[in-house]
Every structure is written in structure tokens, then in C-alpha cells.
Amino acid sequence: MNRLFIISQKHQQQTDAIAAGILLANQLGLQPEVMNYSYESLSGDAYYNPRIAASVRAQILAEDEAYVQNTLAQLKASNTPSTTLWCKNLSEHACKKAHPDDYAMMLKSIHESAHFLPADWQLIRHTKVPLMLLSNNPLNRVKSILMAIDLGTNDASKQALNQAIIMQANRLATATGYELHLGFVIRLPKVLRDMDLVNSRSLIKEAYQKHQQEIEKIGLEQDRVHILAGDADMCLFELSCRLKAEYLVMGARQRQGILGYIVGNTAESILTRIRSNVLVVPHQTVD
């Protein structure tokens, strides 16, 4: 469990996942390991002729392997274990490979895609270890970390997920020396806010008083605790921008089946606009 699983895709990553992964592994005291995924849809003779297809795949794999080795050499990390694999379904392979008994975290550059349920969403839904997704549009950082937890829950599994988020965020803050902040969003539908049927300021003030004991147990100073009312994904996005957070640590309930595809979760929604690196703590880590 002392390894960091770094996902590399030469043609599909905007942020250098290998460099970021090596740095983070050193900070967290983990052993980095690079899994370089290669895949291209073949056409023409390469599609119909197995011999030509095998030759094309071999050439692509060789080029991608050379890319990884050159990158590691430039980072003075040539001893880092790496594997180059021809694989169409990255998320399925990665989630099976990165088992909690062997890996402490998985890291990948966010892949911006217009396709329904891209690989990043599938990773969020199925990962069994914390998943770090690197932003392609980072803010000017001020060395802060924002962790999003649900102070208002009475559900035992959600409370356990809160503790897992706090543990991961504290570990990241200790390793980086960054200032840790807490964000809690009181979910308030837009229609209620627009109609002024609920006083959001009163709700927030009451929440600070109601959860004071829990906040004290977490051990953060009052000015690092932020309670907001509204839509969770938008509130967390705006708060992370205001804090210029380098990392946002949050949980994922990992809904499955038809309902999960329709409803989604906050971790998935926020990826469309976030400008921080997102550490997703899966619900499976507390099962």
C-alpha cells in the first residue's frame, strides 16, 4: 500500500502526469509506478490485416515506451518501475490493477472529452483507492488545500467517508506544508434562493453554531472553516477559486446502475469547471 499508481497517456493528457506523480510520490513518501496506456483505432490495411496490425501496434508501443523512459530520465527517476500496455479500456484495467492492498493512491491528468462517460468519470465510479485528477487549467496557487465534508449528515457511512476525507487531506497538508481549509455546503435549491423563501445567511449562522463541536474536533481555526448555502458543485468551485486552492479533497459515493448514470455525483459534476487538482476519496475505502 506504499505505491502511487501513475496513469500516463501520451496523446490524451494536457498536464504532465509523470512529473506531477513523481513529485507527489516524493512528498507523500510513496513509491511511484508508471502505467503507460497506449491505444489507437486502426483503419485500412492495419485494421483488416493482422500482421500489419501487429506491426503498427508494436511501433506505437515502442514510441510510447521511449516517451516514458525519456521523461523519467529527464526527471532523474530512471529507476521508477514502468509498464507500457496496449489497452482500450483504461478505467477497467486501472481499477483492477490499483488494489488497496498494493497502492495508496492513483494519479491521472484530467482528460477533457465531449464523449458520454469518459474514462475519468469511470475511474471515479469504480476506483478502490484515492484518485488524484490533475487540473489542466490551474489557478495561480497560494499553497492551500480545501477539503469538502458533510457536517450535517447522520448517516454512518457518510460520517466514515468524512473521516477518510479528513485523513487524506491532513496527510496531503502535512506532506506539502499547505494551509488546510474546510468547506461544507448546505444544499439549497436555486428556486428557493430566487424566491427568497429561505434566509441563507441565517442557515449558515445556525450551521456554524450547530456544528461547532465537530469543527473543534477537526482542529482548524475558525477562519479556515467555510460554510455556504447553494448547489454543492458551484459553491465548492467558487470557494476553491477564492482560496486559490491547489488541491480539492472530496468524497465520492460511487453510485452504480441506471440511477447512478442519471444522477451522477458532485465529484463528477465539479470536474467540468474545477481549476484545482481533485483528490477523490472513494466510498469503497470505508466499506
Helix and strand run: EHEHHEHEHEEHEHHHEHEHHE
Rounded mean pLDDT is: 85
| Widest sheet: strand ordering | 3-2-1-4-5-10-9-6-7-8
Kindly report how far apart the N and C termini lie. Answer: 17 Å
Characterization of the model:
44% of the residues lie in helices and 22% in strands. The protein is α/β, with parallel strands linked by helices and 287 residues long. The protein has a ten-stranded mixed β-sheet, with helices on both faces. β4, α5 (119-126) and β5 form a beta-alpha-beta unit. α4 packs parallel to α5 (119-126). The longest helix has 25 residues, at 50-74. It is elongated. Mean pLDDT is 85; it is low at 257-264.
List the helices and strands and how they pair.
Blueprint: E1 3-8, H1 17-28, E2 31-38, H2 45-48, H3 50-74, E3 82-86, H4 90-97, E4 103-109, H5 119-126, E5 131-134, E6 144-148, H6 156-176, E7 179-187, H7 190-194, H8 200-210, H9 212-218, E8 225-230, H10 232-243, E9 247-252, H11 257-263, H12 266-270, E10 277-282
Parallel strand pairs: 1-2, 1-4, 2-3, 4-5, 6-7, 6-9, 7-8, 9-10
Antiparallel strand pairs: 5-10
Write a brief caption for the model.
The chain is an alpha/beta fold. The protein is 44% helix and 22% strand.
Keywords:
44% helix, alpha/beta, 287 residues, ten-stranded mixed sheet, single chain
